[in-house]
Amino acid sequence: FTLLENLPLLVFFIKKGKIKYLNRFSEKNLGYTKQELIERSFTEVLVSPEEKFNIEKLLNKSLMEEKEEEIMLTLINREGKSKNYLGRCFPIKDLDKEKLLVLTGIDITELLDLKQSLDSLHKTQSFGSFLRSLVHDFNNILQQVKDYLKDIEKSLDNPQKIKRYLNLTEK
Which of 12, 105, 123, 159 could form a disulfide bond with 85, CB atoms 3.0-4.6 angstroms apart? Predict the structure, then answer.
């Protein structure tokens, strides 16, 4: 278990829905001690209520079909904050030949926050480009109106020309 203890990612062993093992990284990253989580339900304690059904379904599928599954889940740390993980779950047999689910994951919370910030920046830049284009088009219209007004000013003695420029200005 020394290797598992020192891995910089979550490692849980889950048997019949209960946590049987978690490594130091899991303790540190989630803010719980091993004593607080061992023999507790993984989904009841750590999984957000919104995700509980889907996570249980995925974990059961991996266990029943005896196949590895990629998993992305949001866990709730001791402080009540959500943390996002990307990882895998796969079944193995323990010393008693009973199925045990191994769940591993890497914390991607900061990466998702960065992605969200970049998406927001991109939207802001796109909106800024749209506004610049709109202002440019509006300035073109104002320039035409300004030119028509100059022409009207030059044609104060000719009412027909003034009428023509006013009609063009209205369009």
Answer: 105
